[in-house]
Amino acid sequence: xxxxxxxxxxxxxxxxxxxxxxxxxxxxxxxxxxxxxxxxxxxxxxxxxxxxxxxxxxxxxxxxxxxxxxxxxxxxxxxxxxxxxxxxxxxxxxxxxxxxxxxxxxxxxxxxxxxxxxxxxxxxxxxxxxxxxxxxxxxxxxxxxxxxxxxxxxxxxxxxxxxxxxxxxxxxxxxxxxxxxxxxxxxxxxxxxxxxxxxxxxxxxxxxxxxxxxxxxxxxxxxxxxxxxxxxxxxxxxxxxxxxxxxxxxxxxxxxxxxxxxxxxxxxxxxxxxxxxxxxxxxxxxxxxxxxxxxxxxxxxxxxxxxxxxxxxxxxxxxxxxxxxxxxxxxxxxxxxxxxxxxxxxxxxxxxxxxxxxxxxxxxxxxxxxxxxxxxxxxxxxxxxxxxxxxxxxxxxxxxxxxxxxxxxxxxxxxxxxxxxxxxxxxxxxxxxxxxxxxxxxxxxxxxxxxxxxxxxxxxxxxxxxxxxxxxxxxxxxxxxxxxxxxxxxxxxxxxxxxxxxxxxxxxxxxxxxxxxxxxxxxxxxxxxxxxxxxxxxxxxxxxxxxxxxxxxxxxxxxxxxxxxxxxxxxxxxxxxxxxxxxxxxxxxxxxxxxxxxxxxxxxxxxxxxxxxxxxxxxxxxxxxxxxxxxxxxxxxxxxxxxxxxxxxxxxxxxxxxxxxxxxxxxxxxxxxxxxxxxxxxxxxxxxxxxxxxxxxxxxxxxxxxxxxxxxxxxxxxxxxxxxxxxxxxxxxxxxxxxxxxxxxxx
Length: 747
Hints:
This protein is of the alpha/beta class. It folds into four domains: 3-159, Immunoglobulins (Immunoglobulin-like, Sandwich); 167-288 and 312-472; 557-654, Immunoglobulin-like; 657-685. 31% of the residues lie in helices and 26% in strands. The strands form eight sheets. Strands 9, 10, 11, 20 and 21 form a five-stranded parallel sheet that branches. Strand 30 and strand 31 form a beta hairpin. The radius of gyration is 52 Å and the shape is elongated. The model is unreliable at 6-30 and 704-747 (pLDDT under 50).
């Protein structure tokens, strides 16, 4: 493989060494840096009878001084490697102890600082070094003498056996967006990733027209779909390109979340998004219309006008759909697989489909020794797809490198694959290109084709791997990453708190949905590997920031600290302010409880608070007998009785007796005045009763004299006017007229 040389380089001349050495501190007179010498066979090191051997020799100078010119020799061993272990040992060494026959040489010119130079060597097909070689994998090395020792770069030459039966090979290529802190990609991020030179565009272009098995992060597709009509044009075009692909595929966890750490953190199964409604806007989803269907027998009527039915939001399943060839597929991050994780995943079923877990061959006891493990396996009743760790690592490295040095890793992958084909007993193999971003479509595509077009293999899809007869393996012991497990446990605990808090909303998914999506993104495998190597603090910082944001959300609703209340009347309203910093309206219940019986408080009041506002709540209180200080405990709760925010306490000074005293005094005064009035009235009436007899005596005397005076005229009248009588002494009838009188003698 490549030789990385740590050199102390003088300002006038470079010095290189075959072995790593302590690097002096940089100084103006003694600058330091590294140089890398790489042997890269052309055609991935494959040389059939009659082919020319061509290699590229590259010296990369990352120092601040010029590297000296060098004379490079190329040597090839006569004996093939016995097995994969011998190949691995050869590729790992930087100081070969075996001297091989030289088959070519060239000169490397001086290499300026921060640059590189590449030269080639060709060995003719009729060279004795190549003619008559039997199929196998042979050691190949390039070297040049340096001031402190010889610098080596090891590789291999592969002579294929084209008469051997071909073995099926599946190549899994992940389609991922890298580490994220938010639940979904933003429109700006999508525009960048799906641009012509974007990472997602490169990944899709690399697999187009190939037999790659796609492992797709559904969060990418959901990020585009939730934007509806507002999705960037490039993102919509990317989605159309993806949907047109014919590759077999399966869905990764949302955000490519690490399934192992979720189970190790106590989850019963890998978690899924609960809702993405919070990411969708009604205006981006035109209303669907429903047109009534006329009956065939109905009489002609005017054409009905379609009626709008509201925004046509896609369902969660539609947002996450990757058009998977098979469900229940799990791919833990490389290096995180343990027997317990495999057992837990093996017991899961999705849509009546038993699970299959992708693990590296080094996670099995057989593969840990360097032996080949076929793809379809079973470990303690858990269905497995085992990918070759050595081949996958070499392919992944090649996908990240530039043209000049990529051939070294591709040759290593091809050499390992040559042994795997021999050792698999005809069963299909599986390799991966593992996760990675910022890979060019050329590097990714070249690495993919190096596997599918290697000698002795034929590309197969996911179904062929799944349908193969499983081979029993034993999963090797491994220790979980305690740091990641602790962080995941804390995130899930915070999620529970958010779920309780979200009951203040009519639709709690507006908070719980983004929380779950963000947690899965933070547990994404993109935070491992290169991201962790580049900035080891990035993931812990992202976790800390998210937890701080969660704490802020939980504190977004609460009671403002109340001031002391002076209660001088028997009844009043206790003013309480409720704040809501959420962008959604909330419904809560304010519970109030006094610590003294001198004050009676309405125990609960329902409160509705608009988004990002404060609302005044008036709690009716009633003073009882006695004065003093009373503390009223105030607590908000959701309609499901979950406590919201911290409790607050209102101090109330009860002075309601002053009002009672005033009322009593006023009552006494009014009562006294009324009593005085009544007494005076009674006395007045009594005095009136005492004067009444004297008035009666005088009145009787006057009445006695009055008849005597009145009767005298009547007597005189009677004397002067005697009663009329007839001659015979009878009183005449007043009704008889004069003519009715009859003389006595006439009778």
